[in-house]
Design brief:
The chain is α+β, with helices and mostly antiparallel strands. It has two helices and two strands. The protein has a two-stranded antiparallel ribbon. A hairpin with a 6-residue loop joins strand 1 (10-15) and strand 2. The longest helix has 13 residues, at 47-59. The protein is globular. The two termini are 22 Å apart.
Amino acid sequence: MMHGDLNRGVILSEKIAGCSQYNVFRVPSDIHSLFQQHFTRGKYWHYYSLWMECRLKQNGQRENSLSVIFYPGASWWRW
């Protein structure tokens, strides 16, 4: 994964509807177990998977576009 394997967890993937891309992400094991145990019939998706599908529906597969998500206080982004 992009940031290494120091943080253990369950690796999941979701196919992005409308294109041939997948979103691969890690969920901490305890959080994944919580959802599996308490929401057995629930459906859940990663936010970026839904966001990418929405972008495709809104704009089609335009090559000349850029999307940016800003986070308040993102400590990982340092110059």
